[in-house]
Design goal:
Its main location: membrane. Interacts with TRPV2; the interaction probably occurs intracellularly and depends on TRPV2 N-glycosylation. Mediates sugar transport across membranes. Belongs to the SWEET sugar transporter family. The structure is a single chain. This protein is an all-alpha fold and about 220 residues long. It has one domain (about 5-220). About 85% of the residues lie in helices and about 0% in strands. It has 11 helices and no strands. The chain has helices at about 5-25, 25-35, 45-65, 65-90, 95-120, 120-140, 145-155, 160-180, 185-190, 190-205, 210-220. Mean pLDDT is about 85; it is low at about 215-220.
Length: about 220
Amino acid sequence: MEPDAVVDSLLSGACVLFTLGMFSTGLSDLRHMRVTRSVDSVQFLPFLTTDVNNLSWLSYGVLKGDGTLILVNAVGAALQTLYILVYLHYCPRKRALLLQTATLLGVLLLGCGYFWLMVPDSDTRLQQLGLFCSVFTISMYLSPLADLAKVIKTQSTQRLSYSLTITTLLTSTSWTLYGLRLRDLYIMVPNLPGILTSFIRLWLFWKYPQEQDKNYRLLQT
């Protein structure tokens, strides 16, 4: 096997492994909901936005003919849909959540209809869809900044997940290298904020260790 093919295979494998590892962190929330039969301390919106993001990148992968994108986002969309269904099953108030779901799915369907029906040129369609996916992914990576500000204010990292931080860093780095290898800015650029926010989280874990939070709560009680 040629060196270039080996590099491509390694990068593709890393993207699949790390991304599925990141998606699987939601299994702990799934287990919590099934054991407690409630959705306490579990957030719904990240499941929904990640699902829409997966479906968008799945469309981009199909249009581009990229097997790595197709595999990762097909599995990711299936997992996020499972999380959503379990959350809705145990949530006592479903109307607002169903409205959010219907709104985002409606926007997604309108976008897909536009890209596939109103943009006849495949190259232009690929560029516009890639731009949409990039903007959506960047907004997802930057959305937790408000939570990071709260961490600094409270000097507590209890609201952060260390395992998710590590998997996000590995995932963002692998996709950045994969996009660089393919010379695809739509894949490379939106993952740079993921690397940045992951390093910020790691710095916060170092600055405010969770053992310190535990001792602080014991003193408070």
